[in-house]
């Protein structure tokens, strides 16, 4: 009960359909987004089958939007009571999509529940579902070396048990990292602009990088994560969401960049949640010299490419420490290698 009440969604974003004319349209895709309270929308019946009601008198949550009390987003009537056959439709889309494309697929959809009147078993039209996207899961270097995937945690920079993507990447030699010890949600918009400039430099140089940061990448809500758009991070080949101390934020799992992730073969990791078995070796990363160091960000460059391996079927992803990287703090690390002494051997 405590978790349900503390973690439930309290606000949401809606399309503002009022007073929008041609002159008000903008290339910013958030120009007509309105932030609203769940409670306000539930009070007028808009979320009839999406919310439940916390009965503070009896201390229980009732699977209905009726009555006094706080509204809790549970989708109980959809998932448990069958007012809308979401599970069956999703199964149909995934099954038919896999048969048609010959391999597992990823989908994106939007639904509309007919809540103008109570839905019963006899209701002919319970709503609509719109199939927005379907794509085959990207096949890149599908034959992964199982020895790599079983590398000991001590030899890893990152490990995620909820990784998205599949294949092997071995052409990344830089990490762009938001400093966890300096991170403040109040600076999220500033960090987004700084990352945009860094990404532009990587793009101009034709290089890729691993992007690591707390919260949900791409969220419009700066309280949940850094509000980057895809063009701001387009050179990233692996995007990593880390947990925030003291905050329970559901990982985005790449939903903000779904099409781009599947089209360009970008990996997505979630790491750092308590007791989830993931790994992020911050001590190792902090020990590495950096080519860029600002108040909020560091860029760590490696002399040789990092190995990124993702097994999409097992949702396992790892980033290995370079085996032939010079020790941290050595002359070879900072580019100031002194000329070596030579001895004339006569050969």
Give a structural overview.
With about 350 residues, the chain is of the alpha+beta class. The chain has 3 domains: about 1-75, no CATH class; about 85-135, no CATH class; about 145-330. Helix content is about 20%, strand content about 30%. A hairpin with a 4-residue loop joins strand 15 (about 295-310) and strand 16. It is globular, with a radius of gyration of 24 Å.
Give the tags.
347 residues; alpha+beta; 16 strands; 20% helix; 3 domains; 9 helices; nine-stranded mixed β-sheet
Please provide a brief summary of the model.
This protein is α+β, with helices and mostly antiparallel strands and 347 residues long. The chain is built from nine helices and 16 strands. The protein is globular, with a radius of gyration of 24 Å.
């Amino acid at each position: 009960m405590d978790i349900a009440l503390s973690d439930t969604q309290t606000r949401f974003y809606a399309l503002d359909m009022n007073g929008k004319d041609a002159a008000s349209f903008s290339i910013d895709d958030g120009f007509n987004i309105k932030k609203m309270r769940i409670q306000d929308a539930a009070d007028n019946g808009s979320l009839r089958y999406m919310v439940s009601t916390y009965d503070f008198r009896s201390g229980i949550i009732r699977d209905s939007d009726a009555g006094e009390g706080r509204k809790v987003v549970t989708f109980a009537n959809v998932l448990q009571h069958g007012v809308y056959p979401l599970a069956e439709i999703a199964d149909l889309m995934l099954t038919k999509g896999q048969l048609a494309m010959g391999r597992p697929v990823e989908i994106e959809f939007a639904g509309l529940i007919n809540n103008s009147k109570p839905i019963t078993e006899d209701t002919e039209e319970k709503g609509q579902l719109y199939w927005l996207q379907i794509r085959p899961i990207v096949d890149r270097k599908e034959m992964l070396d199982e020895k790599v995937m079983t590398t000991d945690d001590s030899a890893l920079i990152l490990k995620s048990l909820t990784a998205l993507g599949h294949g092997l990447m071995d052409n990344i030699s830089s990490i762009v990292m938001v400093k966890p010890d300096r991170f403040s949600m109040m600076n999220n918009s500033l960090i987004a602009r700084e990352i945009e400039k860094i990404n532009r430099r990587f793009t101009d140089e034709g290089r890729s990088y691993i992007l690591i940061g707390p919260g949900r990448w791409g969220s419009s809500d700066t309280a949940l994560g850094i509000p980057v758009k895809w063009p701001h991070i387009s050179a990233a080949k692996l995007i990593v969401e880390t947990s925030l101390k003291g905050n329970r934020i559901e990982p985005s799992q790449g939903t903000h960049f779904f099409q781009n992730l599947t089209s360009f073969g970008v990996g997505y990791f979630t790491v750092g949640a308590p007791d989830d078995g993931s790994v992020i070796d911050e001590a190792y990363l902090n020990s590495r010299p950096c080519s860029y160091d600002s108040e909020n960000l560091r860029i760590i460059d490696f002399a040789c490419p990092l190995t990124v391996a993702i097994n999409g079927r097992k949702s396992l992803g790892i980033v290995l420490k370079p085996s032939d990287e010079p020790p941290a703090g050595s002359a070879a690390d900072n580019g100031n290698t002194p000329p070596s002494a030579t001895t004339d051997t006569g050969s």
